[in-house]
Amino acid sequence: MLLSGAVLSGSDGDIRIDVTLENTPPGISLLLPKDRLSAILGSFTGDEITITPDESSCLIKAGRGEWTLPTEDAGEYPAWNVDGAKPVTRLPVDQFCRAVKGVVFAVDDESSRYALGAVLVEVKGEVVTFVATDGRRLSCVNCEHDLAVDDSQTLVPARAMAIIARLAAGCSDASVQLEATKNEIVATVGNATVTARLLDGRYPRWRDTLPDRDAKATTVSRADLLAATRAAAIVTSEESKGVQFVFSGDGIWLHGQSAEKGESSVTCDVVEAGDKATVKLDPLFVQQWLGGIDSEAEPEVEVEAVDAQSAVILRCGDNTGVIMPLAVD
Questions:
Q1: Domains, in order of start, for the chain
Q2: pLDDT tens digit string along 106-127?
Q3: Which residues contact 158 (CB under 8 A, 6 or more apart)?
């Protein structure tokens, strides 16, 4: 890691994190071994660390311990200058973290289509939409901002989004400012700045997966549906991983079965019944989408199911999910 003046930096070439430190005298510039410094910081319970540099080493004092670590020439650290970044959005940290949590699980890092490994940040007027899809399911979350910026689409690597959200979670009274160049995203959170390379590729026409159809959704408790899905999925396997969801006026009946693990039958009560339908879904997709929602703020979910071949649409507050059905055996 590079300690230069009051800024501590770490980078792997694709993502860089810069943190501004307090009480750091000017003129310091050295490279520190990341693993050993991290181990030192994790070995004491004090709130202050002293680093005294020498020509080729530094003395670190923390708590009652002292360590002398070798250092390297700061000039060898690769430069990463960002020029011409334009504002994309600015959101309170709670909204940003909620949006990332609600979509990041749906990316596909292993796809040959690199765009599917990104979270799409789409800005249209006052609405900012976070979107992730792997081609079999999609999740999106809408937020509102008051930043006067041009409409845009930015493909942010899922790993970078997760890092930004982790930093934001520790800054409850701050906001997340996103800026972008043609090739990079720059996120400012409190005293930290995250710079990451954007992904290339054409993102799917994701709005086309949200059909406008005449169907009545079933309203159900998020917690009840999550518990029922987990219970029904206990007997599923890789070869037979689907759970059958049967929507009726009496509730939702969930059925799972595999030759090696057995059979399950679970009934989930509903708040309001919708159209009757039977559809087979991957229970993991259902669980991940339900788990990405703020359960206290949004206790109920609307599930729109039409038939065994059509996409299932889930809505809960500003969160929307699309899950494609599995083939019926």
A1: 2-76 (3.10.150.10), 86-205 (3.10.150.10), 210-323 (3.10.150.10)
A2: 999 886 667 899 999 999 999 9
A3: 104, 107, 109, 117, 118, 119, 132
